[in-house]
Design a protein that fits this description.
Fumarylacetoacetate hydrolase, domain 2, 2 domains, eleven-stranded mixed sheet, 18 strands, Fumarylacetoacetase_C_sf, 2-keto-4-pentenoate hydratase, isomerase activity, FAH, metal ion binding
Length: about 290
């Protein structure tokens, strides 16, 4: 199932992508089955109970919204945690001139960084070296602590696409990356949240284009630490909660990895498109 969040007036509604268009399950004509006021976070927490109602709505709906008319919201709006993995593809480590980590490199972003599909990202005036990072994003489905690696993927609700936007000059200013990673709008996610039963996270093609030019092209099979490794590792130190999101790292091809004379940083008007197999395409324009 492909969920998405979109604006209806000033409110965020939850929809499902179908071959006929988008079904608004919070404004559905089958009133007895309506899921009014159920945000995606509530659906994730209560998926076992809510799923039959959603499946009935999909069978009985009579109207669908054309997707091109939607004003998207982030695929997850209120995560307790936004966690990110750095240096998780060998070729990206080489281009960054860093050592292969013995453990996953974990950093965080905050909710202010969340942005939606098609949202314009306004760059702050406090930096100059703005970069893209195409990433597979895990969305946790149930609470877990000290999760065994072999059980880890059973804790996943679904997957989405993320762009770990970075201000490299701020990121490298100190040993802590936070300021360069968590500016407003620096974590676009979406357009869809695809349930885990439809995705093999270890075999997904991933691609990033800037103004139509391919900059990154790889496959999640090249991760140093795969999704199960990441979930298990993080859960040894903090309890994962439903709706938590985890950016899993980016492959080679970021601007930082270019020779210094060839580094052309993101600027106003640039369009970034990130595509991941079976998950769709996340598109944002720099404002």
């Amino acid at each position: 199932m492909k969920f998405l969040n979109f604006y209806s007036g000033e409110k965020i509604h939850l929809g499902i992508k179908t071959e006929y268009g988008i079904i608004d399950i919070q404004n559905n004509d089958q009133k007895k089955n309506s899921l009014d006021h159920f945000p995606i976070e509530q659906v994730i927490r209560s998926w076992g109970e809510i799923r039959p109602f959603i499946e009935e709505i999909l069978v009985n709906h009579s109207t669908a919204i054309p997707e091109e008319t939607l004003h998207f919201a982030p695929a997850i709006c209120h995560p307790e945690k936004i966690l990110c993995v750095g240096l998780n593809y060998q070729n990206h480590i080489k281009e960054s001139k860093m050592e292969i980590p013995k453990f996953p490199v974990i950093f965080s972003k905050f909710n202010n960084a969340l942005a939606a599909h098609k949202e314009k990202i306004t760059l702050p005036n406090s930096a100059q070296k703005y970069d893209y990072e195409a990433e597979l994003v895990i969305v946790i489905g149930k609470e877990g602590k000290n999760i065994k690696r072999e059980d880890a993927l059973s804790y996943v609700f679904g997957y989405t696409i993320g762009n770990d936007l970075s201000a490299r000059d701020l990121q490298m200013r100190t040993s802590q990356w936070l300021i360069g990673k968590s500016c407003d709008g620096f974590a676009p996610i979406g357009p869809y949240l695809v349930t885990a039963d439809e995705i093999n996270p270890d075999q997904l093609d991933i691609c990033c284009e800037v103004n139509g030019e391919i900059r990154q092209q790889s496959n999640t099979k090249h991760m140093i630490f795969n999704c199960a490794d990441i979930i298990s590792y993080i859960s040894q130190y903090m309890t994962l909660k439903p709706g938590d999101i985890i950016f899993t790292g980016t492959p080679q091809g970021v601007i930082l990895g270019y020779p210094e004379s060839e580094q052309v940083w993101l600027k106003s008007g640039d369009r970034i498109r990130i595509s991941i197999e079976n998950l769709g395409t996340l598109s944002n324009t720099i404002a």
